[in-house]
Design a protein that fits this description.
The chain is α/β, with parallel strands linked by helices. The chain has 13 helices and 16 strands. This is Aspartokinase.
C-alpha cells in the first residue's frame, strides 16, 4: 500500500482567495488517496482572535474586531464561491458559535482554557473554506475535525500529546477514510480526554503534521511556506540569505530550538524517531526542490542567524548576601514550568540569575508575584534575542550596529546576544 503523505499549508498560503486558488493548483496533479492536508487559520486570523480575547479580558468593546474578522472570511468566500453556496451559512454558524463563547465570562485564572476554546475557530473556518473550494474544483476531499484525532492532556495552550491514544484514533478513524479519499484537517488544535479543546502551542500546525505522520507511519511530510525552504536567516530581516538544500534532523532541531520560525520546534523529534523525511517548499514556486530534512544529510557550517523579537530579560538577585546556588535556579525554573514559560537564554553570575523569555499576556506579572519575596527582580521588555550558529567573528559587529547589548554569551559554535535599539 502507498504510504501516506502529509501536506501542511500555513496561514500565508490561505490568506486570501488567490492564495486558496494557488493551493488548489498545487494539489491538482498531486492529490490522491492516502493524502492528508493540514491547514492553518487564514492570514493573521489567530492574531485577530488574540486581540479580541485581550479586549474582552480588559472589558473593552471587541465588536468591530469581530465584525471585521467575519467580513474578511466572507469576502474570501465571495471571491471563491457562487452566491447561495453552502459555505456562507456555515461561516455564519461558526461566528454564532464564536460569539456564544465570547459571551461567557473570562478571568486571568481561566484564561488559558478560554483561549483554547476561542482560538481554534480560525482553523475551523479555514479548513471548511478550503475543503469546500477543493470540492468545487473536482478535487474531492473529506473534512476531518482534528480534535477527534489529536488527544492531549489538559495543559491548555501548550498541551502535551497522548501519543498512544492519538495513534489509535488515527488508525481507527483516519486510515479507513484515506483508503477512499484524501482528508483535510486542521493544525494547532486537539482535545483532552474530556473533549475540551486544547492547542499545541503557537504556530503548532507544523507539529500537527508531524503527529499525524508518526501516527499513520507516513512516507513524508511537506510544509508549504512563502520562502524557498529553510534559509540561514529570515529573508525579511537579513540580506543575502542561503538556502539549505538538505539538513540533518539534529541540526534542524537545533535551529528551531533557538527560534528559527520556518518550522515549529516540536516538529522534528517525532519525524526523526520514525525516520520520516520532512520537506520545506515554497507555495509560490512549488516546482522548486526546497529543503529536505532527513537522517543522512551532511552537517552545514554556514553561519545561521535567528532573531526572536518581543523578548523580556528578567534578572533575579539574591537578597540574603549568599551566592547563587542550584536551589535558586531550581526555584526560578519551577515557576517558569508552572507558567508554561521557557527560558530562551540563561546566564548566572555570583549573585544573579538572568533569563530571557517570550512576552506573553499576564505571564510576567505572575512570575514577579511568585518570586518577589525571594529575589530583587529587574526586567526589560521589548528586546531582541539574536542567536548566531556557526558564527564568523567578523560578522557579529554588523549585527549589533545601532543596538545596545544587555546580555551576551558564546560557545565554540554559538553566540547569543540580547539587544535593543539605541
Amino acid at each position: 500500500m502507498t504510504k501516506t503523505q502529509i501536506y501542511k499549508f500555513g496561514g500565508a498560503s490561505v490568506k486570501d482567495a488567490p492564495a486558496v486558488k494557488n493551493l488548489a493548483n498545487i494539489l491538482r496533479n498531486r492529490l490522491r488517496n492516502n493524502f492528508v492536508i493540514v491547514v492553518s487559520a487564514m492570514g493573521k486570523t489567530t492574531n485577530h482572535l488574540e486581540t479580541i480575547l485581550s479586549l474582552k479580558l480588559t472589558n473593552q468593546d471587541y465588536s468591530w474586531n469581530s465584525s471585521n474578522l467575519k467580513s474578511y472570511h466572507l469576502d474570501i468566500c465571495t471571491a471563491l464561491f457562487p452566491e447561495g453556496h453552502v459555505i456562507f451559512p456555515k461561516i455564519e454558524n461558526y461566528f454564532i458559535l464564536l460569539h456564544h463563547e465570547l459571551n461567557k465570562p473570562v478571568s486571568k485564572e481561566n484564561y488559558d482554557e478560554y483561549y483554547d476554546r476561542v482560538i481554534g475557530f480560525g482553523e475551523m473556518l479555514s479548513s471548511r473554506i478550503v475543503m469546500e473550494y477543493l470540492c468545487s474544483q473536482a478535487l474531492l476531499v473529506l473534512w476531518q475535525d482534528a480534535r477527534e484525532l489529536i488527544c492531549t492532556n489538559s495543559d491548555f495552550r501548550f498541551a502535551k500529546v497522548d501519543w498512544e491514544k492519538t495513534r489509535r484514533n488515527c488508525q481507527s478513524q483516519l486510515r479507513p477514510k484515506l483508503e477512499q479519499f484524501p482528508v483535510l484537517t486542521q493544525g494547532f488544535i486537539g482535545a483532552d480526554s474530556s473533549g475540551r479543546p486544547t492547542t499545541l502551542g503557537r504556530e503548532g500546525s507544523d507539529f500537527t503534521a508531524s503527529i499525524l505522520a508518526t501516527s499513520l507511519d507516513a512516507g513524508s511530510v511537506t510544509i508549504w511556506k512563502d520562502v524557498p525552504g529553510v534559509l540561514n536567516a529570515d529573508p525579511k530581516l537579513f540580506k543575502d540569505t542561503k538556502l539549505f538544500s538538505e539538513l540533518e534532523y539534529q541540526q534542524a532541531a537545533q535551529m528551531t530550538y533557538y527560534g528559527a520560525s520556518v518550522i515549529h520546534p516540536k516538529t522534528i523529534k517525532p519525524l526523526a524517531n520514525a525516520g520520516i523525511p520532512l520537506f520545506v517548499k515554497s507555495f509560490l514556486h512549488p516546482e522548486e526542490n526546497g529543503t529536505k530534512i532527513h537522517k543522512t544529510a551532511k552537517v552545514e557550517t554556514v553561519p545561521t542567524i535567528i532573531l526572536k523579537k518581543d523578548q523580556i530579560l528578567v534578572s533575579f538577585k539574591v537578597t540574603d548576601f549568599t551566592f547563587i546556588e542550584e536551589k535558586h535556579i531550581h526555584q526560578v525554573y519551577e515557576q517558569l514550568q508552572m507558567l508554561k514559560l521557557r527560558a530562551n537564554m540563561l546566564q548566572t553570575s555570583a549573585i544573579t540569575i538572568s533569563i530571557v523569555v517570550d512576552s506573553q499576556l499576564f505571564k510576567l506579572e505572575q512570575l514577579l508575584a511568585k518570586l518577589k519575596n525571594d529575589f530583587i527582580i529587574r526586567y526589560n521588555e521589548g528586546l531582541d534575542l539574536l542567536t548566531v550558529l556557526h558564527p564568523k567573528p567578523d560578522s557579529i559587529p554588523s549585527l549589533l550596529d545601532g543596538y545596545e547589548v544587555l546580555l551576551e554569551q558564546s560557545t565554540r559554535n554559538m553566540v547569543q546576544v540580547v539587544r535593543r535599539l539605541n
